[in-house]
Each structure stands twice: as C-alpha cells, then as structure tokens.
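Look over this entry.
=====
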Amino acid sequence: MKVLNLFTRLHGVETTDSQSGYRAYSRRAIEKIRITNPDMGASSEILIQAKNHNLKIVEIPITVRYDIENTSSKNPWRHGFGVLGWLIRVTSEERPLLFFEKDFENIISDEELYV
C-alpha cells in the first residue's frame, strides 16, 4: 500500500491510505469527478481528480487491517499491481517530467547530442 500511496501523493494528494477510508462527496465533487477506472484504482482516481478540481479533501483517521484472510474478492497482489500500473500510466501522462527529466541526462551523453 505504501507504493500506491506514494504514486497518489505525486499528484499532490496528502493521504495516509489512498485505498481505504470513509468518503463523503459534495454535490460539486459528484458533478466534477468522472471515474474512468472500472477497477479498484478508482480510489486513487477520485482523490487525484478531487485535487485537480481544487476540491477539499479531509481525511478522517480509521483503522485498517490488511492481514485478515478472505476479505476481498481479488487477489491482493493482482489488485496492488493493477492499481500501481494504472497510477504509473496516469502519472506519466499528467506529470511526465517526474519520469523523464532526471533520466534523460543519464541516457544521452554529451557526445551523442553533438553527433
């Protein structure tokens, strides 16, 4: 979950757990947010869109247990990698410099730039 939180935070969303929690939405949020992820990544998508639309996000602390057997219809590894793949794609589209800025200089040497 920490990796999913990290990628959600790259979009400026401060949260302790992007995949769980009790959420309530204003009428404005319901009108603005358009969920495109048909899977469990919708939790992060809602938070990212809320941030992009300058909607207020308030976190109420809850207790979550991820160590209880048979509480989900999905395999936790498949779920986690599915959400991570979606978050990487969205992050690379919305914030490409996070992916390419630092590595670009390491990939192309000065000699290659002038050939």
